[in-house]
Amino acid sequence: xxxxxxxxxxxxxxxxxxxxxxxxxxxxxxxxxxxxxxxxxxxxxxxxxxxxxxxxxxxxxxxxxxxxxxxxxxxxxxxxxxxxxxxxxxxxxxxxxxxxxxxxxxxxxxxxx
Length: 113
Ligand code: 5GP
What we know:
Helix content is 24%, strand content 22%. The chain is of the alpha+beta class. A hairpin with a 3-residue loop joins strand 1 (17-20) and strand 2 (24-28).
């Protein structure tokens, strides 16, 4: 069965796409937690970072590299931004398809609540 994000990748569910290439897709989060909130996902559906295989290491690096690039493209380069990966139940993961949250546009306090 396809994950929710695979359906977005396949254009079966609409999303506001902000970046796409052969390996990753970035789109705006449907329930933004900051003025700018996007998600970037690998097209290959790794369930979560803890289940990435050794072969996935180049893709993980690429995902992070592109997350920073997309943050810049969304105007967050000057004031800063936060990248978040939720893993498993206590991590707050709700969609079992690896994704990096890109958050910015306001001061993000630390630690998060
Ligand atoms: P998680 O909690 O797994 O780290 O993050 C999942 C994210 O996916 C949440 O921030 C949630 O708002 C977002 N989300 C859930 N369903 C949809 C959807 O249908 N479209 C979009 N664009 N985002 C979604």
